[in-house]
Amino acid sequence: MLYTRKNTQDYTSLAEQVILYAEKRGFEEIKADFDGYDKPASLNMLQQQIKLTPDFTAKRGNNKHYFELVVKNEEREDQLKLVSKWKALEMIAGMKGGRLHLFVPRGSYKFATDLVREHGIEARITKLSDIQN
What is the mean pLDDT of residues 7-23? Predict the structure, then answer.
């Protein structure tokens, strides 16, 4: 999720759902770009002069997984940044034995699946409505 959207009450609520989901699924060492948690390490993409910070990271066993909250965004430039971020996280997760997980609130599922399909990104997409208790 792009930084400008992280400082909202909606984001806080969605972030808490993702963290609870990860804990229930046996993920440990959860880091979140979210108050109250250790912040995940940022990635520097030197060629594009972009600093990327995953929304969440966690480990299961020795495998590191990356979690992103997806919010529909119609601005093409923001979409391209998001695609670059997801591709980088997908690659790094694969190198660390994990995978990229995209968590999608209502209204953003088609947006996420279209981007993943169009850009050949390997990610597990989960609707937040499917994990709510």
Answer: 82
Checking if the pLDDT of 89 tops 90, the result is yes
Tokens of 16: 């808490």
Task: Give me the DSSP letters along the chain.
Answer: --GGGTSSHHHHHHHHHHHHHHHHTT-EEEEESSTTSPPPPPEEETTTTEEE--SEEEEETTEEEEEEE------HHHHHHHHHHHHHHHHHHHHTT--EEEEE-TT-HHHHHHHHHHTT--EEEEEHHHH--
Q: Which two tokens stand for residue 128?
A: 């937040």
59-88 average pLDDT score: 91
Tokens of 88: 């980088």
**Structure tokens belonging to residue 31:** 């880091």
Closest CA to 89 of 76, 80, 98: 98
**Tokens for 63?**
């495998």
Instruction: Name the token pair of 56.
Output: 């969440």
Pairing of β 50-52 and β 43-45:
antiparallel
